[in-house]
Design a protein that fits this description.
Layout (H helix, E strand, L loop, with lengths): L1 H31 L1 H8 L1 E6 L2 E2 L3 E3 L5 E2 L1 H17 L5 E6 L5 H6 L5 E3 L6 H4 L2 E3 L4 E10 L14 E5 L3 H9 L8 E5 L2 H9 L5 E5 H9 L7 E3 L5 E5 L2 E3 L3 H17 L1 H10 L10 H8 L7 E2 L4 E2 L1
Parallel strand pairs: 1-5, 1-6, 9-10, 9-11
Antiparallel strand pairs: 2-3, 3-4, 7-14, 8-11, 8-12, 8-13, 13-15, 15-16
Helix pairs in contact: 3-9
C-alpha cells in the first residue's frame, strides 16, 4: 500500500505542474505585459473622467477631452512608434474617483488619464508616470468667509469628494484639530460643488486646480472664494498597473520629449490660459518639466505623505 501511495502522490504532483505554471504566469502577464496585448489587439483602453475640467472631461460633443487626455494620446503615439504599428484603436472608459484604481488593477483600463495624485499609499498598488501638473489642496467657500488656518474650519460643515486625497486628509484632521467639524462625502466633485452652492455645506475641500475648473464654467464665480490656505502638495501623474514597466517607459518617454522640446508649454496654455480659465503655471509644475520626477504628494498640515 505504501509504495502505491507514493507513486499515486508523485503522479498527482506531476499532473499539477502545468496548471501551477500557468497560474504563476497569470499575474506577470496581467501586471506587466500590456504592450504585448496592444501589439496583438491594436487597441488600448484609456480611463477618463466625466467631469474633471480642464484635465479630463466629456465635452458638448460627448467626446473625452482635456489636458490629461491629450498627454495620454501623445503617449499612444509613442507606443505606436515603439511597437511599429501604423494605428492603434483608442477606447475610452469613464471611471469615477473611487473606482479608477480597482478598474486599472482589474485590467478594465490600461492607462488612467485624469487628475490622480501620486501618493505613497497609492504607489503600493499602482505605478505612476512623471508628474505632469502640481496642484495644492485648498478650500472653496462663499465670499466673506475667510479661511487662513485649519482652525478657521472648526465646527464647519465641509463637503468632500469620495475617493479623493482631500477626503483622506480631512478624515485624518477629523481625528485632531477638526474633530468638531461635520464632513459629508459626495460621489463626485459636481455633487459636492452643488451642495456648497445650495448652502448644505459651508466649504468644499479639493485640489485648487479642480475647484478653479468647476468655478470657471459657472456664472456664480463671483460669489465664491478660494482659500489662501494650502493644505497639501498634489503631483498629478498617469497611472499604469504595478510592474507594467514597458508601458510605463513609453509614457515616460512621451512626457520627457514634450518637456525637453518645450511643446508642453503650448499644451499647458491650451487648457490653462483660456477665456474662461487662467491658472498660472506654478513653480513646482515648472520644475517637474525641467527635472522630470515622480515625487509623491505631501500633506503639509500633517507633516507627512498623503
Amino acid at each position: 500500500m505504501f509504495p502505491f501511495s507514493v507513486r499515486l502522490l508523485r503522479a498527482a504532483m506531476i499532473s499539477l505542474v502545468p496548471a501551477l505554471a500557468a497560474l504563476a504566469a497569470l499575474p506577470a502577464q496581467a501586471a506587466g505585459d500590456t504592450m504585448s496585448k496592444i501589439r496583438e489587439t491594436h487597441t488600448i483602453v484609456l480611463g477618463v473622467r466625466e467631469a474633471v475640467p480642464p484635465f479630463s472631461f466629456v465635452n458638448a460633443q460627448k467626446q473625452p477631452t482635456g489636458y490629461s487626455v491629450d498627454l495620454c494620446m501623445n503617449a499612444v503615439e509613442e507606443i505606436k512608434r515603439e511597437l511599429k504599428l501604423s494605428d492603434i484603436k483608442v477606447q475610452y472608459k469613464l471611471v469615477a474617483g473611487p473606482e479608477r484604481i480597482p478598474k486599472l488593477i482589474a485590467g478594465e483600463i490600461d492607462l488612467e488619464c485624469g487628475s490622480t495624485t501620486n501618493t505613497m499609499a497609492r504607489q503600493e498598488k499602482v505605478d505612476f508616470s512623471y508628474t505632469f501638473f502640481v496642484a495644492g489642496m485648498r478650500v472653496l467657500t462663499n465670499k466673506g468667509l475667510h479661511v487662513e488656518t485649519v482652525k478657521d474650519l472648526k465646527n464647519m460643515p465641509i463637503a468632500l469628494a469620495k475617493g479623493s486625497t482631500s477626503e483622506k486628509l480631512f478624515r485624518q484632521l477629523g481625528d485632531g484639530e477638526l474633530r468638531d467639524a461635520k464632513f459629508t462625502t459626495y460621489d463626485n466633485n459636481g455633487e459636492a460643488y452643488k451642495a456648497l452652492k445650495e448652502g448644505k455645506v459651508r466649504a468644499f475641500a479639493q485640489d485648487d486646480s479642480l475647484l478653479q475648473g468647476l468655478v470657471s464654467n459657472d456664472k456664480e464665480i463671483d460669489t465664491l472664494s478660494l482659500s489662501r490656505l494650502a493644505l497639501s502638495v498634489e503631483p498629478y501623474a498617469v497611472m499604469v498597473r504595478k510592474g507594467d514597466t514597458a508601458l510605463l517607459a513609453a509614457v515616460d518617454r512621451s512626457l520627457a520629449q514634450l518637456y525637453a522640446s518645450g511643446e508642453i508649454n503650448a499644451l499647458y496654455d491650451k487648457w490653462f490660459n483660456t477665456h474662461t480659465l487662467t491658472i498660472k503655471m506654478g513653480r513646482l509644475t515648472r520644475d517637474s518639466f525641467v527635472r522630470p520626477n515622480k515625487q509623491p504628494g505631501v500633506a503639509m498640515v500633517l507633516g507627512h505623505s498623503i
